[in-house]
Design a protein that fits this description.
There is one protein chain. With about 350 residues, this protein is an alpha/beta fold. Strand 3 and strand 4 form a beta hairpin. The longest helix has 21 residues. Helix content is about 45%, strand content about 10%. It is elongated, with a radius of gyration of 25 Å.
Protein backbone atom coordinates (compact mmCIF):
# COMPACT_ATOMS: atom_id res chain seq x y z
CA UNK A 1 0.00 0.00 0.00
CA UNK A 2 1.12 3.59 -0.49
CA UNK A 3 2.58 6.41 1.58
CA UNK A 4 0.34 9.40 2.22
CA UNK A 5 1.68 12.68 3.51
CA UNK A 6 -1.01 14.38 5.57
CA UNK A 7 -1.25 17.61 7.52
CA UNK A 8 -2.93 16.18 10.57
CA UNK A 9 -2.85 15.74 14.34
CA UNK A 10 -1.47 12.22 14.78
CA UNK A 11 -3.40 11.76 18.04
CA UNK A 12 -6.69 12.00 16.13
CA UNK A 13 -5.89 9.57 13.34
CA UNK A 14 -7.98 6.40 13.05
CA UNK A 15 -5.25 3.92 12.25
CA UNK A 16 -4.14 0.60 13.73
CA UNK A 17 -0.98 2.12 15.20
CA UNK A 18 0.61 5.49 15.69
CA UNK A 19 4.30 5.98 16.33
CA UNK A 20 5.48 8.01 19.29
CA UNK A 21 8.77 9.90 19.04
CA UNK A 22 9.68 8.89 22.57
CA UNK A 23 12.51 9.52 25.03
CA UNK A 24 14.70 6.74 26.40
CA UNK A 25 12.67 6.48 29.63
CA UNK A 26 9.37 6.24 27.69
CA UNK A 27 7.88 8.88 29.96
CA UNK A 28 5.68 11.81 28.93
CA UNK A 29 7.76 14.57 27.39
CA UNK A 30 7.32 17.52 25.09
CA UNK A 31 6.22 17.83 21.48
CA UNK A 32 4.58 14.81 19.83
CA UNK A 33 5.40 12.59 22.81
CA UNK A 34 3.61 14.87 25.27
CA UNK A 35 0.60 15.22 22.96
CA UNK A 36 0.27 11.44 22.57
CA UNK A 37 0.46 10.79 26.32
CA UNK A 38 -2.07 13.53 27.02
CA UNK A 39 -4.53 12.17 24.45
CA UNK A 40 -4.07 8.54 25.53
CA UNK A 41 -4.58 9.21 29.22
CA UNK A 42 -2.57 8.14 32.31
CA UNK A 43 -2.81 4.43 31.52
CA UNK A 44 -0.28 4.88 28.72
CA UNK A 45 2.40 6.21 31.06
CA UNK A 46 1.57 3.45 33.54
CA UNK A 47 2.18 0.74 30.93
CA UNK A 48 5.32 2.49 29.67
CA UNK A 49 6.75 2.48 33.20
CA UNK A 50 6.78 -1.32 33.09
CA UNK A 51 8.82 -1.60 29.87
CA UNK A 52 12.26 -0.70 31.21
CA UNK A 53 12.92 2.16 28.84
CA UNK A 54 14.00 1.97 25.19
CA UNK A 55 17.33 2.34 23.39
CA UNK A 56 17.85 4.81 20.54
CA UNK A 57 16.71 3.26 17.26
CA UNK A 58 14.72 0.53 19.06
CA UNK A 59 10.96 0.13 19.56
CA UNK A 60 8.45 -0.89 22.25
CA UNK A 61 4.66 -1.23 21.88
CA UNK A 62 1.74 -0.43 24.15
CA UNK A 63 -2.00 -0.19 23.77
CA UNK A 64 -3.50 3.11 22.62
CA UNK A 65 -6.03 3.50 25.47
CA UNK A 66 -8.02 6.71 24.83
CA UNK A 67 -6.47 7.21 21.37
CA UNK A 68 -8.34 6.16 18.20
CA UNK A 69 -5.34 3.91 17.42
CA UNK A 70 -5.20 0.41 18.86
CA UNK A 71 -1.45 0.53 19.46
CA UNK A 72 1.25 3.08 20.18
CA UNK A 73 4.67 2.07 18.92
CA UNK A 74 7.31 3.98 20.86
CA UNK A 75 10.67 4.60 19.22
CA UNK A 76 13.59 6.75 20.31
CA UNK A 77 15.12 8.84 17.56
CA UNK A 78 18.70 10.12 17.60
CA UNK A 79 19.71 13.56 18.80
CA UNK A 80 21.37 15.46 15.95
CA UNK A 81 25.11 16.02 16.48
CA UNK A 82 26.04 17.05 12.96
CA UNK A 83 25.45 13.77 11.17
CA UNK A 84 28.79 12.13 11.91
CA UNK A 85 27.67 9.97 14.83
CA UNK A 86 25.42 7.41 13.18
CA UNK A 87 22.30 9.58 13.28
CA UNK A 88 21.03 8.46 9.88
CA UNK A 89 21.38 4.76 10.69
CA UNK A 90 19.63 5.20 14.05
CA UNK A 91 16.79 7.21 12.53
CA UNK A 92 16.35 4.70 9.72
CA UNK A 93 16.17 1.96 12.34
CA UNK A 94 13.32 3.79 14.08
CA UNK A 95 11.17 3.53 10.95
CA UNK A 96 12.22 0.00 9.98
CA UNK A 97 11.73 -1.44 13.45
CA UNK A 98 8.39 0.35 13.92
CA UNK A 99 7.10 -1.05 10.63
CA UNK A 100 8.34 -4.54 11.44
CA UNK A 101 6.62 -4.46 14.85
CA UNK A 102 3.41 -3.12 13.31
CA UNK A 103 3.47 -5.98 10.80
CA UNK A 104 4.05 -8.47 13.62
CA UNK A 105 0.93 -7.15 15.38
CA UNK A 106 -1.16 -7.44 12.23
CA UNK A 107 -1.50 -3.71 11.59
CA UNK A 108 -2.73 -2.62 8.18
CA UNK A 109 -2.42 1.13 8.80
CA UNK A 110 0.20 3.14 10.67
CA UNK A 111 0.93 6.85 11.15
CA UNK A 112 4.35 8.35 11.83
CA UNK A 113 5.40 11.80 12.95
CA UNK A 114 8.64 13.12 11.46
CA UNK A 115 10.87 11.50 14.09
CA UNK A 116 13.73 13.51 15.66
CA UNK A 117 12.88 16.66 13.69
CA UNK A 118 11.68 18.60 16.75
CA UNK A 119 13.64 19.14 19.96
CA UNK A 120 16.15 16.43 18.92
CA UNK A 121 17.30 18.83 16.21
CA UNK A 122 17.50 16.54 13.16
CA UNK A 123 17.24 18.80 10.05
CA UNK A 124 13.75 18.36 8.70
CA UNK A 125 14.70 17.94 5.06
CA UNK A 126 17.20 15.19 5.88
CA UNK A 127 14.78 13.59 8.37
CA UNK A 128 12.11 13.44 5.67
CA UNK A 129 14.47 11.75 3.20
CA UNK A 130 15.43 9.11 5.78
CA UNK A 131 11.75 8.49 6.51
CA UNK A 132 10.83 8.16 2.83
CA UNK A 133 13.76 5.87 2.06
CA UNK A 134 13.03 3.54 4.98
CA UNK A 135 9.26 3.41 4.44
CA UNK A 136 9.43 2.94 0.66
CA UNK A 137 12.00 0.16 1.10
CA UNK A 138 9.65 -1.65 3.50
CA UNK A 139 6.68 -1.23 1.15
CA UNK A 140 8.52 -2.84 -1.74
CA UNK A 141 8.11 -6.18 0.06
CA UNK A 142 5.10 -5.54 2.31
CA UNK A 143 1.53 -4.26 2.17
CA UNK A 144 0.62 -1.55 4.66
CA UNK A 145 -0.97 1.91 4.49
CA UNK A 146 1.59 4.35 5.87
CA UNK A 147 0.80 7.94 6.79
CA UNK A 148 3.40 10.60 7.51
CA UNK A 149 1.70 13.27 9.60
CA UNK A 150 3.23 16.75 9.46
CA UNK A 151 1.96 20.02 10.91
CA UNK A 152 3.47 22.45 8.41
CA UNK A 153 5.35 22.78 5.14
CA UNK A 154 8.74 23.29 6.77
CA UNK A 155 9.47 19.56 6.71
CA UNK A 156 8.63 19.29 3.03
CA UNK A 157 9.96 22.55 1.66
CA UNK A 158 11.78 21.85 -1.59
CA UNK A 159 15.29 23.12 -2.14
CA UNK A 160 15.64 26.76 -3.15
CA UNK A 161 17.07 25.80 -6.53
CA UNK A 162 14.25 23.37 -7.32
CA UNK A 163 11.65 25.83 -6.02
CA UNK A 164 13.06 28.56 -8.28
CA UNK A 165 13.03 26.21 -11.29
CA UNK A 166 9.43 25.14 -10.66
CA UNK A 167 8.35 28.75 -10.17
CA UNK A 168 9.98 29.72 -13.46
CA UNK A 169 8.32 26.80 -15.25
CA UNK A 170 4.91 27.75 -13.82
CA UNK A 171 5.39 31.39 -14.84
CA UNK A 172 6.31 30.36 -18.38
CA UNK A 173 3.50 27.86 -18.86
CA UNK A 174 0.61 28.91 -16.66
CA UNK A 175 -2.42 30.15 -18.57
CA UNK A 176 -5.23 31.86 -16.68
CA UNK A 177 -8.39 29.75 -17.00
CA UNK A 178 -10.56 32.74 -17.87
CA UNK A 179 -8.15 33.77 -20.63
CA UNK A 180 -8.03 30.18 -21.88
CA UNK A 181 -11.84 30.02 -22.07
CA UNK A 182 -11.98 33.41 -23.80
CA UNK A 183 -9.42 32.22 -26.35
CA UNK A 184 -11.44 29.04 -26.97
CA UNK A 185 -14.63 31.05 -27.52
CA UNK A 186 -12.86 33.33 -29.99
CA UNK A 187 -11.64 30.31 -31.96
CA UNK A 188 -15.15 28.87 -32.04
CA UNK A 189 -16.55 32.18 -33.27
CA UNK A 190 -13.90 32.33 -35.99
CA UNK A 191 -14.73 28.77 -37.06
CA UNK A 192 -18.44 29.58 -37.22
CA UNK A 193 -17.73 32.73 -39.22
CA UNK A 194 -15.64 30.75 -41.69
CA UNK A 195 -18.47 28.24 -42.06
CA UNK A 196 -20.95 31.06 -42.74
CA UNK A 197 -18.66 32.60 -45.37
CA UNK A 198 -18.35 29.23 -47.11
CA UNK A 199 -22.12 28.86 -47.08
CA UNK A 200 -22.14 25.82 -44.83
CA UNK A 201 -23.12 26.68 -41.27
CA UNK A 202 -21.97 24.30 -38.56
CA UNK A 203 -22.72 25.07 -34.88
CA UNK A 204 -19.83 25.26 -32.45
CA UNK A 205 -20.90 22.01 -30.82
CA UNK A 206 -20.16 20.16 -34.04
CA UNK A 207 -16.84 21.87 -34.71
CA UNK A 208 -14.24 19.28 -33.96
CA UNK A 209 -14.55 16.98 -36.92
CA UNK A 210 -11.09 18.13 -37.89
CA UNK A 211 -9.79 16.68 -34.65
CA UNK A 212 -11.12 13.16 -35.12
CA UNK A 213 -8.88 10.27 -34.19
CA UNK A 214 -6.78 9.03 -37.09
CA UNK A 215 -8.09 5.54 -36.35
CA UNK A 216 -11.77 6.52 -36.61
CA UNK A 217 -13.53 5.51 -39.86
CA UNK A 218 -14.63 8.37 -42.10
CA UNK A 219 -17.99 6.71 -42.75
CA UNK A 220 -19.88 3.54 -41.89
CA UNK A 221 -22.41 2.74 -39.20
CA UNK A 222 -22.03 2.84 -35.40
CA UNK A 223 -20.64 -0.70 -35.27
CA UNK A 224 -17.79 0.32 -37.59
CA UNK A 225 -16.92 3.22 -35.27
CA UNK A 226 -17.02 1.03 -32.17
CA UNK A 227 -14.76 -1.54 -33.84
CA UNK A 228 -12.17 1.22 -34.30
CA UNK A 229 -11.84 1.89 -30.53
CA UNK A 230 -8.18 2.27 -29.65
CA UNK A 231 -6.18 0.67 -26.84
CA UNK A 232 -7.66 1.44 -23.42
CA UNK A 233 -5.94 3.03 -20.43
CA UNK A 234 -5.45 -0.28 -18.64
CA UNK A 235 -4.19 -1.98 -21.81
CA UNK A 236 -1.62 0.75 -22.35
CA UNK A 237 -0.44 0.52 -18.72
CA UNK A 238 0.00 -3.25 -18.95
CA UNK A 239 1.76 -2.95 -22.30
CA UNK A 240 4.17 -0.35 -20.95
CA UNK A 241 4.92 -2.49 -17.88
CA UNK A 242 5.89 -5.32 -20.20
CA UNK A 243 7.95 -3.05 -22.45
CA UNK A 244 9.82 -1.65 -19.43
CA UNK A 245 10.57 -5.16 -18.13
CA UNK A 246 8.80 -4.43 -14.85
CA UNK A 247 6.54 -6.59 -12.72
CA UNK A 248 3.06 -5.37 -11.82
CA UNK A 249 4.14 -5.06 -8.18
CA UNK A 250 7.18 -2.95 -9.08
CA UNK A 251 4.94 -0.63 -11.07
CA UNK A 252 2.19 -0.04 -8.52
CA UNK A 253 4.65 0.32 -5.67
CA UNK A 254 6.71 2.87 -7.63
CA UNK A 255 3.42 4.62 -8.41
CA UNK A 256 2.57 4.78 -4.69
CA UNK A 257 -0.83 3.21 -5.27
CA UNK A 258 -2.70 0.42 -3.56
CA UNK A 259 -2.46 -3.20 -4.75
CA UNK A 260 -6.26 -3.57 -4.72
CA UNK A 261 -6.61 -0.44 -6.80
CA UNK A 262 -4.08 -1.73 -9.32
CA UNK A 263 -6.03 -5.00 -9.51
CA UNK A 264 -9.07 -2.98 -10.60
CA UNK A 265 -7.03 -1.38 -13.37
CA UNK A 266 -5.69 -4.76 -14.48
CA UNK A 267 -9.02 -6.57 -14.46
CA UNK A 268 -11.22 -3.85 -15.98
CA UNK A 269 -10.34 -2.86 -19.54
CA UNK A 270 -12.63 0.15 -19.34
CA UNK A 271 -11.39 1.39 -15.96
CA UNK A 272 -11.10 5.19 -15.67
CA UNK A 273 -8.72 6.34 -12.91
CA UNK A 274 -8.49 9.68 -11.17
CA UNK A 275 -5.87 11.98 -12.63
CA UNK A 276 -3.48 11.76 -9.66
CA UNK A 277 -3.33 7.96 -9.98
CA UNK A 278 -3.03 8.03 -13.78
CA UNK A 279 -0.10 10.44 -13.48
CA UNK A 280 1.41 8.32 -10.70
CA UNK A 281 1.51 5.37 -13.10
CA UNK A 282 3.06 7.57 -15.80
CA UNK A 283 5.78 8.54 -13.32
CA UNK A 284 6.35 4.92 -12.27
CA UNK A 285 6.70 3.92 -15.92
CA UNK A 286 8.97 6.92 -16.58
CA UNK A 287 6.92 7.97 -19.59
CA UNK A 288 7.86 10.92 -21.75
CA UNK A 289 5.55 13.93 -21.84
CA UNK A 290 3.97 12.77 -25.12
CA UNK A 291 3.47 9.26 -23.74
CA UNK A 292 1.96 10.72 -20.56
CA UNK A 293 -0.49 12.80 -22.56
CA UNK A 294 -1.43 9.71 -24.56
CA UNK A 295 -2.00 7.69 -21.38
CA UNK A 296 -4.17 10.44 -19.90
CA UNK A 297 -6.18 10.74 -23.10
CA UNK A 298 -7.06 7.05 -22.90
CA UNK A 299 -8.60 7.76 -19.49
CA UNK A 300 -10.49 10.80 -20.78
CA UNK A 301 -8.04 13.14 -19.06
CA UNK A 302 -5.58 15.81 -20.15
CA UNK A 303 -2.85 18.09 -18.83
CA UNK A 304 -3.91 21.71 -18.56
CA UNK A 305 -1.75 24.80 -18.34
CA UNK A 306 -4.48 26.46 -16.29
CA UNK A 307 -3.82 23.98 -13.46
CA UNK A 308 -0.77 24.32 -11.20
CA UNK A 309 -0.93 20.63 -10.24
CA UNK A 310 -0.61 19.65 -13.90
CA UNK A 311 2.22 22.09 -14.59
CA UNK A 312 4.27 20.95 -11.58
CA UNK A 313 3.98 17.28 -12.57
CA UNK A 314 4.77 18.22 -16.17
CA UNK A 315 7.92 20.01 -14.98
CA UNK A 316 9.27 16.81 -13.43
CA UNK A 317 8.38 14.72 -16.49
CA UNK A 318 10.02 17.17 -18.88
CA UNK A 319 13.18 17.12 -16.74
CA UNK A 320 13.05 13.29 -16.46
CA UNK A 321 12.85 13.39 -12.66
CA UNK A 322 10.71 10.39 -11.75
CA UNK A 323 11.06 10.16 -7.96
CA UNK A 324 7.40 10.20 -6.93
CA UNK A 325 8.22 11.16 -3.35
CA UNK A 326 10.22 14.20 -4.46
CA UNK A 327 7.33 15.19 -6.73
CA UNK A 328 4.90 14.82 -3.84
CA UNK A 329 7.12 16.98 -1.64
CA UNK A 330 6.89 19.72 -4.26
CA UNK A 331 3.12 19.28 -4.67
CA UNK A 332 2.63 19.41 -0.89
CA UNK A 333 4.68 22.60 -0.77
CA UNK A 334 2.29 24.17 -3.30
CA UNK A 335 -0.84 22.90 -1.48
CA UNK A 336 -1.68 20.58 -4.37
CA UNK A 337 -3.07 17.01 -4.33
CA UNK A 338 -0.42 14.30 -4.18
CA UNK A 339 0.30 11.56 -6.68
CA UNK A 340 -0.94 8.08 -5.83
CA UNK A 341 -2.02 7.31 -2.32
CA UNK A 342 -5.75 7.53 -3.00
CA UNK A 343 -7.74 4.32 -3.14
CA UNK A 344 -10.53 4.64 -5.68
Amino acid sequence: MPIQIVRNDITKMHVDAIVNAANNKLMPGGGVCGAIHKAAGPQLAAECSLLGGCDTGAVKATFGYDLPAKYVIHTVGPVWHGGEYGEREALSSCYKESLALAKEKGCETIAFPLISSGIFGYPKKEALRVAMDAISSFLMDNEMMVYLAVFDKDALSVSKALFANIEEYIDEHYVDEAKLLDSYRRRMQEEELNCFEKGAYAPAASIGAAYQSDTAPSDGDLDDWLDAIDESFSEMVLRKIEEKGMTNAECYKKANIDKKHFSKIKSNTNYKPKKNNALALAIALELSLDETKELLMKAGLALSHSNRFDIIVEYFIVHKQYDIYEINEALFNYDQPLLGGAIE
